[in-house]
Amino acid sequence: MDRMNSNLGTVNSPRTEGARVLRAKAALRAELDEPRRQGRTIGLVPTMGYLHDGHLSLLRIARAECDVVVMSLFVNPTQFGPGEDLDRYPRDEERDLRLASEAGVDFVYAPSVAEVYPDGFATAVGVGGNLTEVLDGHPSRRGASHFRGVTTVVAKLFNSVGPDVAYFGQKDAQQAAVIRRMVRDLDFPVRIEILPTVREPDGLAMSSRNAYLDDEARERAAALPRALRAAEQGARSESLQAGLDAARRELESAGIEPEYLEARDAELLEPVAALNGRPVLVAVAARVGGARLIDNVLIEP
Ligand code: AMP
Predict the structure, then answer these.
(1) For this structure, is 55 an active site residue?
(2) Hey, whose CA ends up nearest to atom 22 of ligand 1?
(3) Tens-level pLDDT at each residue, the chain (301 residues)
(4) For atom 6 of ligand 1, which residue has the closest CA?
(5) Catalytic residue selected from 52, 55, 138, 146
(6) CB-based contacts of 141: which residues, under 8 Å, 6+ apart?
(7) What is the radius of gyration, based on Cα positions, of the chain?
(8) Residue 68's beta-bridge partner residues?
């Protein structure tokens, strides 16, 4: 793609005035018709808002790679379980719109819940089996219905936006694997890009939910990335089990009892007992203070 030319194109002109906010999918489609007809590439970055540098890194890559950048901003109720943090999920639309504009986003699609789930909504897109029933999807954790909520809303976003490329973060590794599978299985004509986790200086993965951490919990939360580094080091120098043991000790020393700390095949999410020449995901989830945090490290062969 020719970035010089695309920067001269008319579809990028909304950027000089900031991102255009659209609340209705019909209006969004109407805006995207013309650039699509001209063969311009459309990039989509789905978010639930309360933007941080992790989101911004996705937006920057989308801006560099695509002619038109769409960011969706929607706190999707169907991916929250009963008793989860839907009501208190942090929101600041004004700030998000400013940051999106600064990142060069052309269109922010920020629909209401009724726009996405009109009365009588009765359809779901679900990836079955192992991918959604382990780790976060395990019945004792968030459950497979969490991923049904994710895949349903992402499928709807793909249909509303029609992106050539959609960008997601490695931080949500299981979500990335599930979305890749949905796209493959249902023949969505979109390329999925998974981008590296952006971290705070002490290693904590950026997350909108970090806003729930008080000072003491914030400090303890840094044990998560320390544990993952220990897991990778131990796995490479000794054995995967030794790595997991070292990781568990790191968590214990910060008083953190993980919901899970597991090594899985990075694509299939099946358990692995040893490094085996395929990428291995070590994933952790834990409650720290008022936040449920997840993180992972990808151990490449
Ligand atoms: P969310 O708003 O939390 O649903 O996240 C929107 C997108 O940003 C998802 O694809 C996430 O995986 C991605 N993301 C969240 N945190 C990070 C991070 N620290 N680094 C990179 N990507 C992230």
Answers:
(1) yes
(2) 169
(3) 333 333 333 444 445 579 999 999 999 999 999 999 999 999 999 999 999 999 999 999 999 999 999 999 999 999 999 999 999 999 999 999 999 999 999 999 999 999 999 999 999 999 999 999 999 999 999 999 999 999 999 999 999 999 999 999 999 999 999 999 999 999 999 999 999 999 999 999 999 999 999 999 999 999 999 999 999 999 999 999 999 999 999 999 999 999 999 999 999 999 999 999 999 999 999 999 999 999 999 999 9
(4) 47
(5) 55
(6) 135, 259, 260, 285
(7) 20
(8) 42
Q: Which two tokens stand for residue 209?
A: 């939910």
- For the chain, counts of helices (H) and of strands (E): 11, 9
State the angle between helix axes of 240-253 and 223-237 in degrees (0 to 180), rounded to the nearest 10.
160
Is 54's C-beta closer than 6 angstroms to any atom of ligand 1?
yes
Neighbours of 18 (CB within 10 A): 16
| Any atom of ligand 1 within 6 Å of the Cβ of 198 | yes
Ligand 1 midpoint to CA 37 (Å): 30
Tokens of 163: 């992106």
